[in-house]
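note to self: dont lose this again. the chain is below, predicted strucutre after it. 168 aa total, dont forget to put it in the shared folder this time
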Amino acid sequence: MIRTEWIPSAYADSNTPVIRKATLDDKPILLRFEQGVVEAERPFTPEMKAGEQQYYDLDWLLTSPDAYLVVAELNGELIASGYARIDASKPYLKHAEEAYLGFMYVVPQHRGKGLNRLVIDALKQFALSRNITELRLEVYSENASAIKAYEKFGFTSYLLQMRMGLGE
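---
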């Protein structure tokens, strides 16, 4: 179990959230978190189908040695998630592998309390344990609050992916 030395001040006087590796037993809650991510991203994705969507292969994320899915738990309740997935880098880059971060979710009543920092710190530790020196993630260009949060953690803009809908 990973515990981090940095504790969000919002939890200083209460029980401390614990960041731990997710298990198959967590899957029902993770499926709910996944729909939370879908709903948060729906306004930025005009081409998304209506209804529930499956973004993640949770079984793979929970069992693969090349993935590390963590949850934040407080008083027996799961309140946040995130994963690092080891990917091969482009052949022209200096690093052979990189860690792609995804499934960054915090339940609404716990947002703004520093949980994403705890999750990202745990994912960074996983990446470093695998000798990975590069973290990547994707964020919608119109999601200013997420961009600002990731910049606070040390991420910088790297590449803008563009799209064009035909027949919309």
